[in-house]
Structures are given as C-alpha cells and as structure tokens.
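Give me the fold.
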Amino acid sequence: MKPPVPHRRWALAAATALALVVGGLTIPVTRAAEAAPVGAGSYTTTPVGALPTGCGAMSGNPRQYATANAPAGAVPTNDWWSSLLWKRTDCAFSEPLHAHPTSYDTFTDGLGFSANSTPAISGTATGVGEYHYPYVQDIRVGVAGLAAPQVTVDGWTDWTVSPYWSDGTRTLRATIGHGLPFAYFQASGGDAVIGTSGTPDVWSTGGATIGFRVNGHDYVAYAPSGATWTVSGGRISSTLAGRGYFSVALLPPTANATERADLATTYGRYAHAHVTGTRVSYAYDPTTNGLSTTYAFTTTAREGTATQTVVSLYPHQWKSLAGSTPITPTYPSARGRMKVLTGVNQFRTAMAFQGVLPELPAVGDGSGTDLATLTSQLAATRSNPMDQRGNDTYWTGKGLGRAARLAEVADLVNDTATRDSALNAIRSTLTDWFTASSGKTQRLFYYDANWGTLIGYPASYGSDQELNDHHFHYGYFIAAAATLAKFDPSWAATSRYGGMVDLLIRDANNYRRDDTRFPYLRDFDIYAGHDWASGHGSFGSGNNQESSSEGMNFANALIQWGQVTGDTAVRDAGIFLYTTQAAAIQEYWFDASDQNFPAAFGHSTVGMVWGDGGAYATWFSGEPEMIQGINLLPVTGGHLYLGNNPAYMRTNYAELVRNNGGPPTVWQDILWQFQALGDPDAALANLRANPGYTPEEGESRAHTFHWIRNLAALGTVDTTVTANHPLSAVFSRNGARTYVASNPTASPITVTFSTGTRLTVAAGRTATTGAYTWSGGNASGGVPPSTTPPTTAPPTTAPPTTAPPTTPPPTTAAPTTPPPNSGSPTRYLLAGGGLGAAGSAATTTVAAANGNHDGTPTNPQVFTATGLNLAYSGAQTTFDLFLDAGAAVGNGVQVRVSYDLTGNGSWDRTETWRYFATDPVAGYEHYTQAAGLASATGSLGTLSNGTVRVEVWSAIGNNPTTLGVGNQSVLRLPYS
C-alpha cells in the first residue's frame, strides 16, 4: 500500500501574520485558536462543535485513505464516489459506486462490476414507493493472489476516481467514472484476473481481446498487444505480456452478434487510450442568455496512437448535445437511456438560460382590494419577518428566506415599513452569524482546514459531522444577502461582509479551481448535472438528494448575488449550476418526458434521487404533500423553471391529489404556488377558498398571495423567448406576452428579448410590458432603506439548544469511595427489554416514525438494567446497534441512554445521540457513538444501586426497522 500523506493544511500555525490572496480577496491565515477576519466579518478556526466523523481515525485525518499521488488541497465530499474516501461504516472498502452505465464495488481482491438492468420496484403507485437498480455483480477484476487490507484513492478528476489496492506484493490501480463504458487498470505482482458470476459465455477470442457474456451483459477485456487471455471455468486471466495495463469495457445491449462484434472492434480502437483526466468548462453568453458547457477528456496512450475515447451521455446531456452524433446502441441506467459517442476527446452541450427574477412583479396586486389584502398581510409580518423556527443553520436560513421574500414584495408595493423591518432582520442576523467574536460558540462559522470546509454552528441534519446539505442551508443565507445588497450595497462590500458571503458560496460550491481551501464544486456532481446531499455517500444505493429545489435556491442565490454585486464569475457559476440542474430535474426528479422511470414504478415524480434509482419518499415524511413539496420549496423568482412545462405541472399536481385522496391538507401554500405555474386560475381559487390554511414554515401569507395573484394576471412561463439580461422572464396568458426584467443597479438599462421587444428598466426597479405598469420600488437604485441598521450589537451567544434537566439532582451526597463492582459494564440489548450478558441472537422491531420525532422517544424499544454498582471511569458511553431497514428508504433510528446513579427514580444523566440514517439495502448496519451527541444533560458519576435505560426509536421514516438483540447490539458503559 502506498503510504498516505498528511493533509496540506491551509490554516498554518504561525507566530507572524500571514495572508492568502484568492480572487482579489485577502484572507488572513491565523493561528489555530484565533478568529480570522474577513472584511468586517470573521469566522473561527477553533472548533466549537461536532466535527466530521468517519471510520476509525477518519475524523482526524481525511487523507488516511488517500495515497501520496492524490491531488493536493481540500478533499472532495458529497460525490458519487465519496464512500471510497470517507468510509463511514467499513474502514476498509467502499459502498457500491454507481457510475453509470456500470456500478462498481470494492473488495480485498479487486473491483466488482454490475450492469444490472432490471429494476427492483417496491411500494405502490399511490403511496410510498421506490425503484432501484441494485448492485448485482457480474465480474470482479483484480490481480492473482491480491489480498489488500483496504482500498485507497490514488487520484480524482472532475468525474473520475482511481481506487488503489496493495497487499505489499501485488498492486492494482483502476480508473472509473461517470459515463465511461471502460474501466482502466494498471497491475503488478501477478496475472490480471477476471472472475465471473458463473461460467462466462465467451463469444470472441482474438489474442489480446476477449469478449464474453455474464448475466446477459456483454463485456470485452483488452490486454496489451502480444498478450492472450486464458479461460478456466469462471476465471479469465492474462499475463498482460508483462506490460501491466489493460481495460475492460461494458458494451451496450445489441440486437445481434454482428453488431456486438462491430462494437467490440470500435471500442478496441480506444481501449488503450486510458482516460487520465476529465474537466468541465462553461461559458455564459449574456447577449443570448445561452450556456455552452464542454466536457473534456484527457487520455494517455498506453500503446498505439489513439487519443480519443468512448463516452456515454445522460439524457440531460444528449438532449442538448451540440456538434456530435451518438451511435445507435444505448445503455440502460438508473437515469434513463445513455447515448454513446465514440472517438471523442470532448463533447459540448448548448442550453438556454431562461432567466430568473428577484420576485414576480406586482401586476395583479398593485391596486384595489388585492393591494389592500396584500398590505394587510405584509403588516402582520412586520414585527417578526423571519418567524424563525430554530436556531441552527437550516432553520435560520429558512427564516432569512422568508424575510427576503417579504422585503422584495413589500418594496414592489411601496410598503417601506415592512420592507425595512425585513431588511433589518436580515442585516442583524447575517451580521451576527458572520461575526466570530471571542468566546462565541453559536451563530458563527468555523473553518476546518483538515476537511476544507466551513461549518455553521448550531449545525443540523448532519451539516457538521457528515457535511450534509451545505448548499441547502447556505443558499438561504446567500439569497437573503443578495436581497440586502440591493438596498444596502455598503454592507455587501468585500471590505465589510461580502467576503463572508463569498466564503459560504465557495464552501458549498467553490467556483474557483485555484482556491484549494475548498473542493471544486463540492455539492454539485458535474457529469450527473445535479447536487448530492450526503457528504459521505455511504449507502448501498449510493448518494442521494431530496430537495432539488433547495439546490436550485443556492444556484439562484449565486445569480442574484453576482448580479447585484457585479461579480460575473459568481453569476456565471450560478447560471451553470442553475441551467444544468434545471434540465436534470426535469429528467430525474420529474421525468417530464416519461422516458426515464421504469414503466412499473407508477409515479410521475420522485421525492428523492439515489445513485441507483429514485423513491417516492422523503427522509422525514410519507405524506404525498411533503414527498412532492420538498422539490418545490422555497418558492422564489428563481424557481420559475418549475413552470417550464405547464402540462407536466398539471400531471404532477394531479398525482398529488390522487395519492393524497383529495386536495392537499399540509404545505398547501407551497403546492398552490406550484399549481399556479400551470393553472394559475385554479390555484387562486384554491387560495381564496381556504383562508385558514397553515403556512409552511418558511412561507408567509403575503408572499403566497402575491405569487398566486400575479401569476393569475401574467399566465404561464413562456420558454420560447430569452433575453440579454439574466434577471428577466416572459409570461403568456391567452396568447398575450408580458415581458419582465429587473434592474438592481444604480443606472438604467435596456433589455432586449429574442423576439425583438425592448424594455427600459429604471435604476432599482422591475419593469413590465403590456397593460401593467409597476411604479413602486427602490427608485434610488441601491440607496439603503430609510431605516438605519440597529445601533446595538447583535448578541454574541445564542441560548442553549437543549433544555435543562427536568428533575433536580438527588439531595443525598454521592459516596466518596466506589461501591463494589456488580457485573460487567458491557451490556447487550436483550429480547424482553433487559440489559445484560449476551444471549441468543434474535431481533425486535423498531416501529416506523410516521413523522419527525428527532430527539423525542416515540414508541421506543426500551432496555433496562437495575441494581448496578460500578465505579465511573471518566470515559464516555459507547454502543454498537445492529440495524436493518431492509429496502426501506428514509428511515433514521435514534437512541437515548439515561443514567439514574442511585436508583431513586431521577435521571441524573441523559444522552440523546444523533439519529442514524439507514440505507435501503438488506443487511445489518452499525449505529455507533460516532453518530455524535445531539444533546446531553446532567453528569455521570458512580453507580450505587443505579439504573441504566436505553430507548431506541425511529426519529424519521415511514417503515419499521429491525434491531438485532441478544448477542448483537451492545452498550458499553463508561465504568470499571
């Protein structure tokens, strides 16, 4: 095995002041315990909360599974191959890696291949359901005798990764990637070996090339010239003529043997042009609102002169392909049919960026009784524009998003009091979070140089320990900052708080390759065209993402921030993310063309996309409103893409009503706003008929009314027209178009649309054509609002997130000497509810959550030990729970351990651990203390006739989970 190298830390410990200049922004490099100033803001370099965790010592050294050849800089996370580098449960190997058209898995003797084209479908067409193309091994490629103790990562590029095996005598290096029909290998210390599932059907042998079929899938192995392949039962091997390289290709399904042979010959021309690099580049043309994206491949010729390769394209790519022609055979995949290009070094897609708006114009509610309704609703929010439901990064973000919508709407109708109240709430909240003052431990950001990430505390939903969802959380912060920047540009200056906004952008999706503090485009899968939510990706089904719309909220935030601050690099990065992902969402979340989901799946949308499929489900709810609504919120002027296909929108909404057994009863506002993009009159009727609805946590009645009422006037999105300005849109109603453009700058602009229509937009205004004229707004074009920032400083600390103990400590003094030890501190969870010595293997069922019970035991399985006399060792509780959710998606099991030190009925110490998200693959997973504490109250001490209780329940999910008991799940008490 090649030895790992220490991570090259960006935050250098130094006695003298240093600075790093990136993109014109000077970022101080500070000692580990100091706060790092960024303009008027700052972040801390001292840990203040839970840090990323992995298997073994992973949390301290994320490069322990990388070789010395791996690229310098921050390690990638949130990728399709992240479980290779971030081994959450298996300290040696990865979970299945769904690259498409092939899936892979890693083992001690090499790399497994799966070309499974038969979906596993569960659930119903009107309830929670899912489809997966699970890993089913066809072949395993390795080196004779290889027995590596683990797999490491020898390199990565934009959409490839190179696993590496060594047992001290033999080595194997592979390169695999999205869209690559080939896997490329370099081997030493023994013959190349291909083990097959059963006896292969060898259909072609020709010296260095062998073609064979396994499980109905055709593979071709290409050895160096002069080499041969030998077949013995289920073993194919070659000495490689002592040259140490070869490749294995999966062929697309073919109609006959002749076509198969022709493909093998065509692929063979490029078999030894090993792909050694991939790179994306993009260009936005403001004159046409066009986005051109180039996907380039670097190859190394192991022999011969060919430098081109073979690639397969996802639907969102081949539907926008420019200048290339795919060959006829296609690959099946979890994302739909993949089309093939041969003999290429690159391919290019051309897409139209449809434009975004800060908010819909007030063409329908700018006067009369509708204006009175809106202003009344706005006034009701004035005292609490954020209506914040939690103090962590996600719920703070949701509150900021609500306030930003209110500020935009209020400005449109000249309600300066509500506008300024919302802006002041945004300003004070962001300034607080962007200031890491001495002693502050909450409402701040921490830069971790080991992991190359910026973590906000309080964190939530694994944004700290698993680096989940940074684009979701931070997108709200950036979007609110963009709204504030329009009215208070001095606050957004780099010399004040603009630099902190840029750091949040770079953490979630670093748009600069020369900034090695963060990985390039962390959360965005460049080739797949969409974000991934999980930092570690360690699931049998690969990585996953629910809320594509919150990913789009991040992309839109970059467009808005870049446009208002004049940062075209940020704006163009946002347009690349936005336009590409909008196409991917139509294909993989909505399947709007009805071509990608398996026919038997029975749904027109999914709540979650997985590496190997999709699920009509969420992590937190089985209600159809939330399954479909999670991919619709937040509703902003950056979410007009949801209306690009009004006919599909109506299909989607009809499925919701069908699956729900009637109109929505929760998240009604979100769903009506979505309905308004396809049938605005029906949405307005629904809104008016249900005035007592409960707003979604990030919404307001004022914004919902504004959105639906104005779409009823504007009509649906017209995607046939573009403009030469990114903040623009066109709507059509009864054949009449309304052109809209927004200008956040201090000078007037003229926007030209592709139809020839020209629209003059005054400074700081939104303008429309047609019968509607809007005259409200920040006419000064960037002058701060009439109110001034608060004169008092924001709080430097936040209230505690956990409640104090509900019972007082015992009034009797603890014994000064430990009592006799009674029994072992190692306790197994036993059938019947005991905690004791290991028993016979058995199982018990943890009931489904059917709601969100994070932190609150609900229908728990309870295990108790009493009469304990043990001396406290000063350590912490550890445990290893055996869990299996089968094929269920979205389950999360949680554990609480409580200590009654004296057996008097009062819990002196209660530890609630973060829930463990199980994967949808049959087989036990291990839930351990590595999940981290969610909360703890009280203190540990000597157990004198004490009691220990373990509660295990489902925090989230709509399916039961199996818990192994008897001699399986174990609790290790911190006692001697």
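The first helix runs from residue 82 to 85.
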